[in-house]
Amino acid sequence: MSDSMLAGQFFDAAIGLLERVRDEEAGPIAAAGAAIADTVEAGGRLFAFGAGHSSLAAQDVVYRAGGLALMNLLAVPGTLGVDVMPATLGSALERVEGLAGAVLDSSPAGAGDLLVIISLSGRNALPVEMAVNARALGLKVIGVTSVVYADETRSRHVSGGFLRDHCDIVIDSKIAIGDAELTTKGVEAPFAPASTVVTSAVMQAMMATAAERLVERGIEPPLLRSGNVDGGHEWNGRVMAEYADRIFYRH
To answer: Where does the record place the SIS domain (predicted)?
Structure first.
């Protein structure tokens, strides 16, 4: 069996996007990592939010071996992806105004905390209002989005604004409108999205920067170890006990 030409093209496209983000977004990623370190040092709490497939990158940094124990998922029921039936309900909920405010008001997030909001298009009511309401509550907001959507599409929020308009720090994922990297003869629709690969890499780069900044300040980063290595459970138990008041996925 010959190697797949399209598989190679996808890897090339993904690598190209990763290199662009590494080189062009180094400043915002460094600022985001420093903001996370500031929040950890000051005793604040960390949250990540994404709807639909954007939630995958948010989930990727929560309760993760090698990740910061303090990162919590800010979940909006029905919007995490294909966990609801019909799956199209999740997309519909992203357009519901007022939902973000209700979720934040009933969450533990408050002044002095930090929220990373991931939204590829940044055009729906849910991520826009999540950013607006979070800042009003006194949270620092980091947005991970594709800025080209704000340049070439129309907002679905009543304000006419996009996620990028309501963040303290914006990281541009560089993903093209439509999120599909490949086309080929005989296939009508473009395919092979790369947003999850790129956005997850952005999130891990932020976490790595935060760990680096904390070490520079003489603070041991509260990292989790794999439960599949000897001593991992004991290590994680100590970290979770020390930071129990800032970890919300255990209770």
So the answer is: 36-221
Q: Which two tokens stand for residue 150?
A: 């704000």
Rg (CA), the chain: 19
Q: What is the pTM of this model?
A: 0.95
CA-wise closest residue to 142 among 176, 119, 161: 119
With CA atoms as reference, report the closest residue to 10 among 203, 166, 168, 195. Answer: 195
Give average pLDDT by consecutive 10-residue segment, the chain, 251 residues.
84 98 98 98 97 94 96 91 83 89 95 97 93 97 95 84 96 96 94 97 98 98 96 96 94 71
Residues sharing a CB contact under 8 Å with residue 233, sequence separation 6 or more, in sequence order: 227
Phi, psi (deg, nearest 5) at residue 49: -135, 140
For the chain, the three-class secondary structure string (H helix, E strand, C coil) is CCCCHHHHHHHHHHHHHHHHHHHHCHHHHHHHHHHHHHHHHCCCCEEEEECCCHHHHHHCCCCCCCCECCEEECCCCCCCCCCCCCCHHHHHHCCCCCHHHHHHHCCCCCCCCEEEEECCCCCCHHHHHHHHHHHHCCCEEEEEECHHHHHHCCCCCCCCCCHHHHCCEEEECCCCCCCCCECCCCCCCCECCCHHHHHHHHHHHHHHHHHHHHHHCCCCCCECCCCCCCCHHHHHHHHHHHCHHHCCCCC
